[in-house]
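Researcher: For the record, we're logging two predictions in this thread. I'll number them. Prediction 1 follows.
Model: Prediction 1, sequence and structure:
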Amino acid sequence: AVVSTQSTGFTLAWFHAIVQERRNYIPQGWTKFYEFSQADLRSGADIIDRLCTGTGSIQWDFIHGLFENAVFGGRIDNNYDLEVLRAYLRQYFDREVLGGKG
């Protein structure tokens, strides 16, 4: 099955809601307040839109890297928080979760 842009976009929206909601539970959620915004969601949606429109398989490691280093993780300065972000990326942006075989 091919991973659809819609299902990946929904996963991005879910992921974005989770990282924002964790800010309400400092220090259990994140160790400090991080300013995740709608711009992060839009940037992520642009990346997904570009990567899911092709007929080839999605490079999940590429998406993880962009989200971890540029979109969401670029402002995280705590190693524990970065590991939490990586765990969420691995959990949600995965071909097994999204149903694709790429």
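Researcher: Logged. Prediction 2.
Model: Prediction 2, sequence and structure:
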Amino acid sequence: MHGELMNNVMVSIDDTEMDTENENNLSVNTSGHQVASSLVHSYNPNFEVNNSSIDLDMYVSGYTGLMRIFRLIFLAEHCPTLRIDALKLALNYTMETHNTQMYNSVHKQLSDAASKSSASIPCYDTNWVETTNKKGAMKLEKLDTDLKSAKSLAFKDCIRRGQEDLAEHFLDMGDLTNALKCFCRSRDYCSNNKNITNLCLNVIKVSVFMQNWSNVLSYVSKVETIIDTSGLTSETSKEEASLLCKVKCAAGLAELNSKRYKSAAKCFLAAHIDNFNYYEILTPNNVAIYGALCALATYERRELQTHVIQSSSFKSFLELEPQIRDILIKFNESKYAICLKLMDQMKDYLMLDMYISPHVDTLYAWIRQRALRQYFSPYKSADLRKMSAAFNTTTAALEEELIQLILDGQIQARIDSQNKILYAKDVDQRSFTFEKSLKMGKEYQQRTKSVILRSLLLKFR
């Protein structure tokens, strides 16, 4: 049901301008090895979380617009204990819009949930549905008439505003496809960079609702190009700094949902809380959680220390999520048992977040495997019994994990199963250095040929 509400039709505007690299869905770990398929956990969309102590009013108070409703519906689908309360709240927020289709859908879910319990629910408001449909149709007709009038007078600014008003109304009615089309049509009537960046932000917003991540990245790239070519920086004004923060957060969300976790971490870490004003999509708490988990899964210890824990800008986000901050600190201090325990305590909460939920198992697995690699890296041998105690697990379970890491090439080691000892493989440093030198020479040769070829193409263009 949630998919029906969010993904009416997936529309890609201006396909020729899409960045093909954004569709490359490979994730690479920081040690240079492509992540094996065994490290990517399949996502079960029908999971349920029964032990949740979320305060719904507080949970959605940070969001505005459609995002409040989408998050409540997602939470209701996956948390039976909060289902009725979440749907009631979603129904109230839906009645602030012209989206009668969503009202019907939410009320049906609420009726189905209430039929299995003795909870009382609001009656279906036929009068509200009919009145809202009439108001929506009348407003749509008026906006369409105003747009035609503006076109007949050939006032570019009026036409642009007319298209934007029409798009906002379609968005309020839940028609994401037509909202996206109207926003894109206003592009021909943009007269300055501010108009273009507003257009891009609107397209990004609708594309996030539709989960069209390639479109999000495409329009983020356009905004960044405008900022670069116009010489706009975060220091020029509060408005421009806020714009930069928004596109970084949108890019981070798109990279996260494209499973490019290191790129997602870089985007979230580039946001500044002083310039944050993107509550129609995310809250600062979301930025802290998404950025920290992606960084934990992909950053080396030194990167984590420098770019996350000691970051003056990201530290302000982490202050909003003390448990995430503690996880980062314990991981950095190599106190893995405490770190993993704190992560397990947060898991139910994270599973009820519609954007991080599909990636929780994968990110948790990557973080655990990174912890295992970091624990063993200084040693030539390690006692599996002591290692299992450090990771709060059994020796047999740890051995299975290490076998998988060895098979995936994550750890260069061998296991003495009888004595329960992990031995690092001896590496011939001379041969390794020689192979690395040859590889660098070949890469340099290829780059040189590419530069020569490019210069010849430009010369005889």
